[in-house]
Every structure is written in structure tokens, then in C-alpha cells.
């Protein structure tokens, strides 16, 4: 799809790499549920270093309170596990180009739901 992806098998490794070169990442995509550090915790730490970096979380199930906590932390959207890669990429593209913003400049929910 034309993106250069840097993948990690742990949140700790992803955070360590992000801390070394935070300006080299255009967006962060992470699973919500991971061992030792949740995706929400990772998002908070990433956003503390570089506020405004687009963060999209993936999950098989998103509770309203999870979405509220993520939104409060600065996460711009969720992509449900089981979605097509193209749908996740669409969500990321909307975040990167700013088309995720509503009329008032606030970010509405971005969902890439399974089809």
C-alpha cells in the first residue's frame, strides 16, 4: 500500500524505538490488549513524547468506557480486529490527512468495522 511499516512484537520494544526517533513515525497503530503494557498505556506514553501523533488502536471488542478513555488520552480511532487491511489503512489515511475532524475541529470516532 506504499507505507513503510515498522513492526514490533511487544509494546515495550515499540515504545523504546519510538523514544529514540519519535519524529520518524507518521502514525502509531497498536492492539488494545497486550501483555505488560496495554495499547492505551502505549498511546499515552507516545502522546506524552509527541502530542498529536495519530494513534489508532485495534481490538476485537471496544467498550464505550474504553473508547472514552482512549479519546481522553488523544487516540483518534479504533479498527476492529477482523477488518480488511484496506479498511484499517483507510482509517489511518483519514487520520493522517486530517479528514477525521468534524465541523468543530473535534475528532469523531473512526471505526473500521468488520464486513
Description:
The protein is of the alpha/beta class and 115 residues long. It has a single domain, classed as Response regulator (Rossmann fold), CATH 3.40.50. It is built from four helices and four strands, in the order H-E-H-E-H-E-H-E. Helix 1 (11-20) packs parallel to helix 2. The relative contact order is 0.16.
The CATH superfamily bears the name Response regulator
Main beta sheet: strand number and arrangement?
4 strands, parallel
Share in helix:
25-40%
Assign an overall shape.
Answer: globular
How do you describe this structure in short?
This protein has 115 residues and is of the alpha/beta class. Helix content is 38%, strand content 13%. The chain has helices at residues 11-20, 39-49, 64-73, 85-97; strands at residues 28-31, 55-59, 77-80, 111-112.
Task: Please outline the helices and strands.
Elements: H1 11-20, E1 28-31, H2 39-49, E2 55-59, H3 64-73, E3 77-80, H4 85-97, E4 111-112
Helix pairs in contact: 1-2
Amino acid at each position: 500500500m506504499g507505507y513503510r511499516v515498522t513492526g514490533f512484537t511487544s509494546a515495550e520494544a515499540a515504545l523504546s524505538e519510538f523514544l529514540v526517533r519519535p519524529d520518524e513515525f507518521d502514525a502509531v497503530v497498536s492492539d488494545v490488549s497486550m501483555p505488560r503494557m496495554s495499547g492505551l498505556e502505549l498511546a499515552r506514553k507516545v502522546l506524552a513524547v509527541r502530542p498529536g501523533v495519530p494513534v489508532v488502536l485495534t481490538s476485537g471488542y471496544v467498550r464505550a468506557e474504553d473508547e472514552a478513555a482512549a479519546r481522553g488520552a488523544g487516540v483518534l480511532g479504533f479498527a476492529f480486529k477482523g477488518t480488511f487491511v484496506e479498511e484499517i489503512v483507510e482509517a489511518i489515511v483519514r487520520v493522517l490527512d486530517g479528514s477525521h475532524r468534524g465541523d468543530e475541529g473535534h475528532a469523531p470516532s473512526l471505526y473500521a468495522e468488520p464486513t
